[in-house]
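Okay, any thoughts on this one?
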Amino acid sequence: MMKRYLQKFCPKNGYLKKIEQLPLEQRWRQVRAWMDTESLSLYEELRESCPVLELPELTIVTRFSDCTSVLRQYDVFSVALYKPKQSDFWMSQDDTAIHWREKAIMRSVLDLEQLASTRQYVAAKASSLLHNAQGTIDVVGGLCRAVSIAFVQEQFGFDKSDPNDLFEWSYWSQYDAFHNQAFDSVVVKDPTQIVANREAAGQNLGVYLIKLIQRRGAELKVGKDNNDPATRLLKLSMSGALEKFDPARVIRNLGGLLIGTVETTSHAAINALVELFERPEILKQAIAAAQKDDPSEFDGYVLEALRFNPSLPYFFRVCEQETQLATGTDYACTIKPGTTVIAITHSAMFDETAFPQPQVFDPTRPETNTFHFGQGLHECLGRHIGRQMITELVRQVLLLPGVKAVSKVDYKGGPFPEEYRLEWCHEELRALFYLR
């Protein structure tokens, strides 16, 4: 199939020709490296000349139509690879009773009427941390992770917890589930250790959550209601209204709140900041928008920055029944059951069929077709909360006078940003603070 593409389409940058010249066992490793270093030019060639790229380990799709097909056809493309990492958590299931019941429960307890207070909380917490930072900060640990962890503690109800513990439990679960699959072996040095770390983190998180639930149960019995997601879930379980939502299921879902909040929020906020700092003219516009009372205009800058620099550039699925992708085109390809399929949604967000003038940074683009929070059955449960947190974290940074990046992002060999240093004029910030 590779030769057919080469003979027919004459790729611009020659990525496909270079791939064909490599031994089969080296092709995915090379493609994966390009995804980190030359992503947009690679994706452009694949969309134009080989939108369904079959490699020995997996199949890659890059066009909007195929990416949406993969993510929306949950009966054809499953999340089977989640199962070994997440056990019986509803996210590791597709069209099951547990999935629908528990996702519905979680959507109910994550009250969207509280989005305004969510944003206010993030703004206040971030502003305080930045003001106390004296003009310089590692924005990963000192702000984005710190605010996300505090949010879990104070808004989701994870009280009497150690922030360092919450970070470890979240970090290793995210790492193993989404960055330690078999196809990640080309970039992961010690996958076995990551599994061990995730298992240990899960055990320790479970111990903490059991104690939390016991404590909340005792509080409810004496009339104390904290009115947070942890308490709401326990009240529902204790009511007996749902036969199959016992305290063990409460613990499962509380763990998901932590794991789905910290690294996802931090990573996205950092990526948006990086993209904005690399675009001086756009940065000026974003800073001006950040000053306005209504954040809606500003939010567009963050979301568009994430289109160029997403924290999740792809989603992976497993083909469950023989199907065809790119149907009706010259690139039509039959996918066999058992095939791992990677939908490169970063590429899909530069497909002109869904994103007019994709190379233009346009903060007014509609969100509908973006993949920042996924699409289909497994769209992010907390997308509305995450959107508020991510955009407000970035906004608080851009409100700092003279803020600038003084380092590149350091990933320290892993999949997440670990350090990114910023500086600003602290004396000017202090003056602004006293004028308020």
Residues 51-87+95-435 form a domain with the Cytochrome p450 fold (CATH 1.10.630.10).
